[in-house]
């Protein structure tokens, strides 16, 4: 361990203050970074990703004192790895980790030695990227590191640091000449600009100035910025921006990068240490990425963002953004058509976790369910899942309205509320659908249509509150094996139902719980009689939208949809495969019907 007595040595309190200033500057520049984000995908989230990464460091390592420079930077690197988001966040996390690793446990450090560590951090950041590109954050980090003079006689730390900052600014200005996509859009690289923001915040603290907490957002023409399809949409072969943390005792980043490259992934970044790493990649299948990661260590904190949806959102800013969760059984293609955003629930089979409808489709879920001795479990998304989605959307839209699965049956609403309170509660509106499956989807569709028509958040919420009691959902299941296996019904109930030849019918009650409300005796013409049961309970004179969901029973679902069309005046109707939110509890063969009257 090294101790320094030179008055020019940099100590942890001063370094901590400087890093706090840098972090605040990055967060203040978030919106501008989102606006100029066109590489590697124009999904408008680089500012959010860097702000989230630095926010994790602010609330962690920088929120408390450290005994020395080495300890402080080690904790900064660890928090950046744990909280890193996106390609830029992972690269920055590896840069900080590389600096810390090179310095070791020093209590204080001379500028010359810190310059050497920064150069080591720059090398580590480049090595973390499978296919490094010039004109990105890597170029600016390298320019800064190379210009930070390793002099033993630094008498003016700000001048010493400021010279390297100026070199970083020149490198930033040069990025459009290195990447044609930047030149075409008329912007510099967003990740590189974020790194310069970090340096500018540190420089302000070194000079005794206040850090700018408001930064002008570039006045860019959205049509110019996103007019080219190559900029506006993510490559379908790499649609999902996917990340996870991997922990183990002897992790090998090079081997992990090679294994992930074997999936045909792009934008691969492996950041961290040999015991804990953050993996980032753009892939066609997030679950395939997570399965590869699991070969190396314990996987946690999985996430997958749909970059095509993000690009559409960034290009079509202005309307209120509508969010739901994967409990909603949305008809295929409607989420894309209506710019609906979906936060996936978590699904677990034994020790293996999946992102609902992203890492595992409903069809794959039922195939696994029929073969597995282990009962699946669903759980609500973590507040961080909602926070990431809300923050991104609020960077491009005036407000967000989230329509969640019924509070009475899930903690998902509470998770979203926690995220909203930590973010921008004044612009985030949480609506309990008091429903699930097709009923929740119908409410989300109605909200998305209102947003497309230009309604503000208050009007959308009022529309949802008016439609909620009139959006009705019934379910019918012939087999009570799954509810009994899962402990949701006593074993004797299955025996009694089978002896009586009764097929129970349940309905979502006004509070949001599913309760048995009737039944049908015998199995003859069962689907047709279920359709009649529903039709008799709906008021006359209304025109309906309806969604029929099936749990691995497509033929019967189609039969039920046709029977309802014959009995009800339907303006729109869809057949969907109901996901695990219902299927994990009711089991295969269950049929679900949701109806909603059309307004006007």
UniProtKB/TrEMBL annotation:
Residues 13-204 form the DhaL domain. Keywords: Lipid-binding. Pfam families: Dak2 (PF02734), DegV (PF02645), FakA-like_M (PF21645). NCBIfam families: DegV. Coiled coil: none annotated. This is DegV family EDD domain-containing protein.
